[in-house]
Structures are given as C-alpha cells and as structure tokens.
Amino acid sequence: MIARRPLRDALRGPTRYDAVMLLFAILFAINVASAMVALMFFMLGLHDGSVTSANILLWAAMLSALYSAPGAAWLLRLRGRPRAGTLLLIPVAAVATLAAAAMVVLMLNPGSWR
C-alpha cells in the first residue's frame, strides 16, 4: 500500500526527508555501479588467468567491501535510518566519482606518452 501525504503537506513542497532519499538513491546507484565494474574486472581476470590463488583474498576482500556498503545502507534505510545509510554510501561514491572523472579527463585529453 502506498502511503500518501495529505494535500496540505504536498502543497508545501519537498521535505528534508525527500532530499535525503534523493541523495540516497543517487549515492546508491553510484555504489552499485562501482561494485558491478569491480565484478566485471574480477570475471575478466578469472577468464584470462590474472586472478590466481595468490591474489584471490585481495579480490574477495575488495568485492565484499564494495557489495557490503550498499547492502548495509539499504538495511539502514529499511530500518528507518536513511541519513545513516546515506553517510555510509558517501566514501565509496566519492572515490568512484573521482576515479570516473579522472578516466573522462584521460579519455578527452590524450597526452603524449613518450
């Protein structure tokens, strides 16, 4: 069942809760996208043999950290603590956004690699 706000509350405009939920959704999408990219590199590494028994624990730690952040944030959101979930998503989303920006700069500005 969809909970609806009364008309007088809807006419007041967005609330602080709406802003937190929008930020949560954006950060959650960035976190899930970065985790999927890491999983893609892991699968490619399994295919070409660069993921071996020597470095499998590093991959397992990295993938579990990347996938536990959105999972824990989702649980916090379900428990009624969306701000705590949002704060949990910020570090991974910030690093992923900076890495994506660096890749865009490198693609748009090809330098001389002599």
Order of helices and strands: HHHH
Average predicted local confidence, pLDDT: 87
Shape label: flat
- Radius of gyration, whole Å: 19 Å
- Characterize the biggest β-sheet: none
Number of distinct helices: 4
Uncertain regions: pLDDT < 50 for 5+ in a row? none
* Number of structurally distinct domains: 1
> N-to-C terminal Cα separation, in Å?
63 Å
Strand content is under 5%
Which structural class do you get from the secondary structure elements? mainly alpha
Percentage of residues in helical conformation: over 70%
Number of strands: 0
Structure description:
This protein has one domain. α2 packs antiparallel against α3, α2 crosses α4 and α3 packs across α4. It is mainly α and 114 residues long. Helices cover 76% and strands 0% of the residues.
What's a quick, concise take on this entry?
The chain has 114 residues and is mainly alpha-helical. Helices cover 76% and strands 0% of the residues.
Please name the defining characteristics of this protein:
114 residues, mainly alpha, 4 helices, 76% helix
